[in-house]
Amino acid sequence: MPRPTLEVADIFRKHGNAYREAHQLPLEQQRVLRAIEVCRTAALGGHREKCRHCAAERNAYNSCRNRHCPKCQGAERIRWLGNRKEELLPAEYFHVVFTVPEQIARIAFHNKEKVYNILFRATSETLLTIAADPQHMGARIGFFAVLHTWGQNLLHHPHLHCVIPGGGLSADHERWIASKPSFFLPVQVLSELFRRLFLEALEEAFRKGELQFFGELTPLAEPAAFADYLVPLGKAKWVVYAKPPFGGPQRAIEYLGRYTHRVAISNQRLLSLEAGQVSFQWKDYRHKNKQNSKTMTLEAGEFIRRFLIHTLPPGFQRIRHFGFLANCHRKAKLALCRQLLLSPVLELLPKPPKPERPPNVCTRCGIGIMIRIAILPVYRWPAKPPPNTS
């Protein structure tokens, strides 16, 4: 894929200092801003490479490796997917999304770690409980969930994407119970249980004094006001929706590559940076023509603000595994699942991966391999990063 003409790093380098001076940023947002600014520049050092075939030379600067950086997630995604390929089962895979109402998202904005953890817990309990119910599937399932906190317009919109093999183990672990073709679990039932579990956990967190309220939500610190705030949410419809099934595990892998290591916006969606205005592509999924791309233009400072509000708490795990895919017993349970699936539909098995072009092929001749010939020292800068010369 050719390098985009405009990157998030370009916007940060040009307008980041002005944004810092105008706002008091939390430490984690400062780190994200600075990491993306210096990513793959002389500030982080690197090495010089030479092509064995045509003798072309180039500088290769180090990556920031920050999980919010659009440029650094590609390599991490490849490593993660390599591990996941070993966990695929010969079954149909489903995609279920759990989201919360806007009123909950407002509380989550200032209580990210607590509310995001509640979102993971309520989602996992919902799926495991309904799947184990004999009225629905009667199986012990396994799945993983990926947290996204943004919408296409970069505003705060926390939701979980769950990728689930279509079936699970029987209660006695003697059989594999497959889900119905092209149908996993009823979303209305999932939605109602998810709503109840989430609100119960949120109320418990409030009773323990684990929630903070600021700005227009400050009055919610009072128990009566908080209770009144939740009343309509207990009656509203919470959005849980199941996308069309992927098919086999190979399609699931293709999906994983698109979703697991996304950041708030990719460089490919950026269109222009002119006169302090950033333009980018987006889709309005509430509109009837939701697949049609639109153009949104924001002040550079507002674009930076919207990007940084998706900074995750330090050490927060945004990809988590549950059921028979839980880390504590994944290896043993997967072996059992494969044993019970000895006669799978062969076309569901993943196809051998296509050989990938080595990442260090010379971009000039397209034949030679680049070899390291020198180390480039770290460039120390006092106030702003050097220009990107990669």
3D architecture notes:
With 390 residues, the chain is of the alpha+beta class. The chain has a domain at 89-264 and 313-348. Helix content is 33%, strand content 21%. It contains ten helices and 13 strands. The chain has helices spanning 8-22, 27-38, 73-85, 102-109, 112-132, 187-207, 223-230, 249-259, 300-308, 330-340, and strands at residues 46-51, 57-61, 93-99, 142-150, 156-165, 167-169, 176-178, 240-247, 270-274, 277-282, 294-299, 319-323, 370-376. The strands form four sheets. It has a five-stranded antiparallel β-sheet with strand order 8-3-5-4-12. A hairpin with a 6-residue loop joins strand 6 and strand 7 (176-178). Residues 344-353 have low confidence and may be disordered.
Brief rundown of the structure:
The strands form 4 sheets. This protein has a 5-stranded antiparallel beta sheet. The radius of gyration is 24 Å and the shape is globular.
